[in-house]
Design brief:
With 293 residues, the protein is an alpha/beta fold. The chain has twelve helices and seven strands. The termini are far apart.
């Protein structure tokens, strides 16, 4: 059984196009979508204070245009926007940070929402990617460069959504993250050196956090069939594991026990073939300093 089948572009976890529930909807109606509701609430509170969009933009470290688009339900609010709403509006009482996850969830296309929701409640997230740094570990600059290559309809929106997914790593009960990444992904000659330096710094910092594990699959490793495809496994406090397979033109979640067990075995083989966590951290540091400094 597959759950939430839908289009994911390439092996970069998909360019998360924001077509969402707002397609064809009347965005002037605050009941038309979670995004429209969030924006309408922000507008009402701002106008109640007699504050201009430009002035609120200064509080939220964004411009007039973004404030206008969020209020009109046309843009996903960054986390900083929701935090500014709760800080600036006297009677917010944390309402906007409570609304923010809902607005984000419904900003993703319908086919991608099941994965995002499962990722958000997982206790363990295991990812393998032979070509790219996985999205949960990407810096904003790296994500922007990767997503730009897919020519999304709204690049800023796609970056906001990808970075927002990372908030699960800094919450009250973050999942344990285990990454196996091909060494090739660390040596991207087409990528800007400054972007790669920042990305490898971020990856090295993740590798130093005790609850997370980062392993590098060396270029000398003998590949096998699973080693050419990006995939992941999600584990939960209650319930069985699920696997997520990236591909072109579709990606999907697998819940049947037999293919999930096969994915678990493949991941175990990748972990056994990869460098140890300490060796991997040293490799990341070496590549960062030798190639991208």
């Amino acid at each position: 059984m597959t759950v939430g089948q839908g289009q994911l572009s390439r092996q970069e976890e998909g360019v998360e196009r924001v077509t969402a529930e707002t397609d064809g909807a009347d965005l002037t109606d605050p009941a038309s979508s979670a995004l429209a509701h969030f924006g309408n609430e922000a507008r009402l509170e701002r106008e109640l204070l007699g504050m201009s969009r430009a002035d609120f933009g200064k509080e939220a470290t964004c411009g007039y245009s973004l404030v206008a688009k969020v209020e009109q339900g046309q843009r996903v609010p960054p986390r900083e926007f929701a935090e500014a709403c709760d800080r600036v509006f006297p009677h917010a009482n944390g309402r906007f940070m409570r609304l923010w996850p809902l607005a984000l969830r419904h900003a993703y296309p319908a086919w991608f929402r099941p994965y995002v929701e499962l990722e958000g409640v997982a206790t363990h997230v295991r990812l393998f990617n032979p070509l790219l740094i996985p999205g949960l570990a990407q810096t904003e600059e790296y994500a922007r460069a990767v997503l730009r290559a897919g020519r999304p309809d709204n690049l800023d929106e796609a970056v906001t959504l990808r970075m927002a997914r990372q908030h699960i790593l800094t919450g009250d009960d973050p999942p344990r993250l285990w990454l196996v990444i091909s060494e090739y992904a660390l040596r991207r000659p087409a990528m800007d050196a400054a972007i790669m330096h920042g990305q490898l710094q971020r990856l090295w910092e993740l590798a130093e956090i005790p609850r997370h594990v980062v392993q590098i699959l060396p270029e000398t490793a003998v590949p096998f069939h699973a080693g050419s495809n990006a995939f992941g496994l999600l584990s939960f406090r209650d319930g069985a594991d699920v696997a997520h397979v990236d591909g072109f033109p579709t990606g999907y979640i697998v819940a049947d026990s037999a293919p999930v067990a096969e994915a678990q075995r493949a991941y175990d083989l990748l972990r056994a073939t990869a460098l140890s966590p300490d060796e991997s951290a040293a490799t990341i540091d070496s590549i960062m300093k030798d190639i991208y400094t």
